[in-house]
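Q: Got a minute? One more chain.
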Amino acid sequence: MEEHDDERDSRMAAPLSVEEVIEGSLGKMNCAQMMQAIFASILPLFDNQQTFISVFTDAQPVWHCTKDDQTSNSCSRKTNICSLSRSVWAWNGNKHSTIISDWDLQCANSFVKGLPATSYFVGCLLGGFLLASLGDSSFGRKNLLCLSCLIMSLASLASAFSPNIWVYSVFRFVAGVGRVSITISSFVLLSERVGKRWRGQIVMLGFLSLTLGLLSLTTLAYLTRNSSWRILYLCTSIPGVICSILTHFFLCESPRWLFMRGRTTDAVNVLKSIGSLDDHLSSSLSNMLVFKQGIPNTNGNNPFSSVKILVKKRWAIQRLIVAMVLSFGVGMMYFGMLLGVGGLGLNIYLSSIFNALLLLSSSLLTFLFWIPRCNRRSSVLGFCTISGVASIISIVAGHHHKIVHVGLELMALFCACMVFNILFMYVVELFPTCIRNTAASLSRQALLFASIFVPVLVVIGRRIQLFSHLIFGVTILSCGLLVIFLPETRGRVLCDSMEEQEAQDKNRSFHA
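A: Always. Here it is, folded:
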């Protein structure tokens, strides 16, 4: 009996690692964790709305010849609208339905018409570099998530009152700066607040939120199609402002990040409020928080110190470069297919709904089946290969079999969506807590960088389909091959410090 008591006392006196604390308290899912996951995953919905809102607000509206010109042959749908007198044609529906008709930009050059969308993505690039490391610094994941969504939503709200395209483009730029950290901060927060058993299923909520963003945007655009484009901005931005404020007050910070920052008391309070602690862990957690592998506050208060930590390690730089190149290749195919919504020959609303349902099915398949059962590295390689080959083959098939061509395009998009989903989880698992938000943000920057080239390729593809499909296919195929330089992460625990990550990698190499 005394031996049993001594063994129990010895076990209770043993120091706990961060992973043991996280798994011991968050390993079992409960209602509090699920509510926190919902709060953390809802803001990406507004992210996707603002990313694709230009598909509807900046679209080229349909026009028709007026009755007064019925007896004349000067006006027809094939005629260049800029060569016609304004008295012989008119816009279908509300003149203010898009910025093109509202501000009479039908004869403006392509640069002016595309300036708002370009400004948005340039803002995303700049914002990513400015805000990428804030989530790893003293600012934190939760604060960055809420602040980013608030900035994006306020800028989008201001866009509704723009007097011209130049002011409108400035507001779109500011929205892009704020928007870029929303999805990354949400996914990192979701992955760090659960045990490894539930990580894939909980992160899936973020991807479902992205899909709901596209679905809700399309629904709102359809319901307001006869109204001003400004109404669509009001309908999407006001809820974003409200949810950003509510999320700030009800969402808890990542306990892993709190431990890393040395805020042990705050971390313990979060675990006690949302975790499922057993009697042993609950009664002794506050007094026993001595970790086997200490996590010093290496980031300090410098918001860019995580970048400094990252570049000091060769293995971290190599992983980041490969992840960024891979993200660029996936971004070309992913945004190329989603922004070219008219490619299937359907109207803009049906195409958007169809794409959203495709995203939904890929998210469910990824996180309910693929992530729990399949390796990350081989999955990324396989889906990149299938997507690239399908896109290239569709070029040849398109000249002879329309149905086969559409089927291959859908296969290419579906596989790109699968890689897009898996890649987020893969990058989160590749880097430790101290630089995870920075690495994930920079990887996403590469994906956004691809989106700058996509609109031009989509326009060219309307005339020369061979060109755009070839570029998309070759890019994702060649970039996907680089995944062989990354380690496999399936079933691995999330590391918190650079030293812990190196120890895990060394142990994995030894057993391999």
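A: Residues 6-13, 288-298 have pLDDT under 50 and may be disordered.
Q: Perfect, thanks.
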